[in-house]
Write a structure and sequence with these properties.
The protein is mainly β and 120 residues long. The protein contains no helices and eleven strands. The chain is elongated, with a radius of gyration of 14 Å.
């Protein structure tokens, strides 16, 4: 079993910044891709950013310049730095990871989500 634990969400005024963190723990042989998704009220969950094992970070085009994703491979962590936040960034942010608990199989895991609310 693998657990993804998120932290760093909260309430911020428009123009402010937040940093989200996610740590993977449990039965881990190897963590492959890690990243972030978000789901706003009444909308589908969407990709924000992901980082592969080759340290290739991808942030969706609409968020580039404001959001940056990074990984700490030694600690099995992924971070999301969010700057110049706008009310439309309000959503529940979910950590996602593709994890191998052994050499042969990979499973995807989700965190419980952390609320980010941006006030106008």
């Amino acid at each position: 079993q693998v657990l993804l634990e998120e932290s760093g969400g909260g309430l911020v005024q428009a123009g402010g910044s937040l940093r989200l963190s996610c740590a993977a723990s449990g039965r881990i042989f190897k963590v492959n891709a890690m990243g972030w998704y978000r789901q706003a009220p009444g909308k589908e969950r969407e990709l924000v950013a992901d980082i592969t094992t080759g340290n290739s970070a991808h942030v969706v085009d609409s968020l580039k310049g404001r959001f940056t994703a990074s990984r700490d491979y030694a600690k099995n962590m992924v971070h999301l730095q969010m700057n110049s936040l706008q009310p439309e960034d309000t959503a529940v942010y979910y950590c996602h990871a593709d994890v191998q608990s052994g050499p042969n199989y990979e499973y995807e895991y989700w965190g419980q989500g952390t609320q980010v609310t941006v006030s106008a």
